[in-house]
């Protein structure tokens, strides 16, 4: 799976979770860039990503992820 | 007489420690900190209670090392890691509950002579240890292999009594080598001085009035109740944040950066924002170690999904949020070890925040329709005042307990319906009955003004000192000397006067 492929699927997940078709994320996107991205949506997002890529994000990573780029790194490492 | 961090002995202790710290070889620095922490503990608390710290640290050490070995050898059963984590957490939580959760189980015990002396700072170090255990279990950090170094993380003296609650990853600087830098010591000392000012000049003075009023509510009603309700947050903030300034300042002198616990909370425009600026490290702890794991648990994910299916996305999300927040606030309430906090602050804020979640889209729409300028200064001011008032109501319960809190609020409300109307108390010197002078009241006003100015500067420059450092030498030294003299002359301390304990030292 390439980074581009991950982003293609990830954008869909974001658009779905935040109910906004216009969202496009990149490596530097953080919670500050998306209004609705609070603690609760963060977990919803994590759960949605887990379902899309069929793996479990370790709890430690859930807390320490700084931006979407790091999320993609984890997906590339563990996701399918 | 135990040593407190506002005492003269403490300043001598820190100064002497600094000399040793920077003179000894750098690889010894963490040992100096450990030694100082042990000395501080023995001077500040009953010596035997240190055994509880040792038990906590030791269980954390043994379990995390064991987990580490299982992982590295790859030979243990998968459940062993979970079992060890749960065991380590349980020992610490149970210890805490016996000593600090006293209020919740004391009713079941008949023997009232029983004396329980908790370890100093038990509420704070327990949270740090729980966080450390989970960080190790989640592989966020490598377990500390040296038990003495781990013990230093648990008992690091500036933060032991009142926090901030540090994460292990933030405090790994404790074990590094630190070069003497004049600016660290100067900035640290300035911050300590500012903390002394907040605590000894402002908080203690306001405290005299507040406790004077709340001591006899039947005598002091009407507008007295308003004074108590509105002044208590000032006392609380000056006390707790002043204490944090001393703690963070002392640590900074040793070149150790602790997390900030306050970021001008009274500038907040909503209650939600308020809690991101007030006791920040407790909120962060609860979010990282309670809320996230809870929300991500199988049970909660299922619940959240079924709610969405049943009630639609918006309502479903609201219900899941409300459930998660309820647990979060209850945990914070229980940590404070007091029913009055659970009801007065946890429950109160849970309701307020959930109402905010429900109503803020409605308000926003209404404001847009009416053409309200919600970005104007006057609107900000209104929002901050509203947030302050909401906090003051909850804090009233926290300060005087549930039953008295109701009386206090009821009496304040009576002024509005005109049952008790005594506005002249503001002018006729009635307030002086509590043992303060007009000079004290002026001093309170000046101190509050100073706090507001420093607050504005720190909002703008990150830290007020960033602005201060750019000023000319004469102005800087003049300011520090005046502040020093203010503390020296007007600080409530010295023979015949015991600075009261910090409010947040009890946890």
Can you put this structure into words, describing what you see?
The complex is a heterodimer of chains A (80) and B (507). Chain A is built from 4 helices and no strands. Chain A has 80 residues and is mainly alpha-helical. In chain A, α1 packs across α2 (39-53). Chain A is globular. With 507 residues, chain B is an all-alpha fold. Chain B has a domain at 8-180. The model of chain B has no long low-confidence stretch (mean pLDDT 88).
Topology at a glance:
The complex is a heterodimer of chains A (80) and B (507).
Chain A: H1 3-18, H2 39-53, H3 59-64, H4 68-78
Helix pairs in contact in A: 1-2
Chain B: H1 8-23, H2 29-44, H3 50-73, H4 78-100, H5 102-105, H6 122-137, H7 147-155, H8 157-160, H9 182-215, H10 223-253, H11 271-277, H12 280-296, H13 298-311, H14 313-335, H15 339-370, H16 377-400, H17 402-417, H18 438-461, H19 464-468, H20 473-490
Stretches of chain B where pLDDT is under 50 for at least 5 consecutive residues are: none
Q: Note the beta-strand portion of chain A.
A: under 5%
What is the annotated CATH architecture of chain A? Orthogonal Bundle
Q: DSSP strand (E) fraction of chain B? A: under 5%
How confident is the prediction overall: mean pLDDT of chain A? Answer: 87
Please give the number of β-strands of chain B.
0
Indicate the mean pLDDT of chain B: 88
CATH topology of chain A: Non-ribosomal Peptide Synthetase Peptidyl Carrier Protein, Chain A
CATH class of chain A: Mainly Alpha
Distance between the termini of chain B: 20 Å
Please give the alpha-carbon distance between the first and last residues of chain A.
8 Å
The description of the largest β-sheet of chain B is: none
> How many helices of chain A in DSSP terms?
4
- Provide the gyration radius of chain B in Å: 24 Å
* Shape, per Cα inertia axes of chain B: globular
Q: Structural class of the helix and strand makeup of chain A?
A: mainly alpha
Helix content of chain B: over 70%
Using a beta-carbon cutoff below 8 angstroms, give the protein chain pair with the largest interface and the number of residues from each chain: A-B, 14 and 19 residues
Biggest sheet descriptor of chain A: none
Radius of gyration of chain A: 11 Å
